[in-house]
Specification:
By secondary structure, the protein is of the alpha/beta class. The protein has one domain: Spore Coat Polysaccharide Biosynthesis Protein SpsA, Chain A (Alpha-Beta Complex), CATH 3.90.550.10. It is built from 15 helices and 14 strands. A hairpin with a 2-residue loop joins β13 and β14. About 14% of the residues have low confidence.
Amino acid sequence: MAGQQRYLRYIVFALVAIVLLFFISSSSSVPSAQWPTYKGGQPQSQDQSAADSNAPAAPQTPQSEKPSTGTTPNPGNALPPATAGGPRMNATFVTLARNSDIWEIAESIRHVEDRFNRKFNYDWVFLNDDDFSDEFKKLTSSLVSGKTKYGKIPKEHWSFPEWIDQDKAAKVREEMKEKKIIYGDSISYRHMCRYESGFFFRHPLMMDYEWYWRVEPSVKLFCDIEYDTFKYMADNKKKYSFTLSLYEYVETIPTLWDTVKNFTATYPQHVVKGNSLKWISEDDGKTYNHCHFWSNFEIGNLNWLRSDAYIDYFTSLDHAGGFFYERWGDAPVHSIAAALMLKKDEIHFFNDIAYYHVPFTHCPTGEQYRLDHKCSCNPKDNFDWNGYSCTARFYEVNEMEKPEGYEKEH
């Protein structure tokens, strides 16, 4: 009798265990939450995932043969679409660079794209006196969100003009080398200054555009730029802009101002009323105070540079030979032209574009602006109110109120 009771208890326990196992296995079959899968860096809906599951399966590599890289997979290299809406201006970035500048220009592109162009996807034109390498093209095109174009500079734009006395030019370079004048003995630097002064805006690739933003290797942007700078220029009838200004090396331009005065005497119609002569001269044009906009940053209007006034101006300077007999830079050449041929209100100072080109920094004056726009520059590095800067004079000549807090940086 006792044996039968034990046997019945075993049967009951077995039935209870079976029932419990049944409920546990049933609960484990409840559908789990469905999350979007990713393909090519983009999220897919459940419907998309289901549709893709019907596609032919890709060959599978055996687990033992799959390489172990120790890195996370890159879901795709497509650049994100522009985030700012609205129409775009007919504008481009332009860079004069050599293949050896590849990593320095890559740094510049990332700053420009991250702080500005990822929102707008403007094009980028690269110019070189030689053919660009495949490596240069591959890297830069992968970084730029707009279209990239690569152009070779015509030899006649990157060589000594026929009217230049080669012996005289060589003697000048040797003298400047002895005086330790920066780039004083460089031939390529002189070709660059001449090209930037009179030819870059006439390159066939540039003829497609109306506006340009000049970018050089190893520059940095420290603040987010949330608006379209090209559209701002157009809407406010601006034709030239800058972020840094300073005095030019006197030894590099001893006869530049005399050459300019010869030009204005020959072409008085090219000097506009309401210009910025007082910014570059403190005695009504008798002498030049050497103030200039630092042209390694420029946002400007290409049609102005292609105008008869500017072309006559450059041609006059070019035939005087100062690019080779001295060491005229494109910065004073552009700046004098803008000061004489544009009205004061056609030149714009971009206080809000935080910019660096060795060795100077423009860090926007105004703490709140820097906080609002995620600026990473140190205001103590700001060059604007330094005694060697011409920016304070620009404010005074244009009767502009200086930014709040500038006294602390003086």
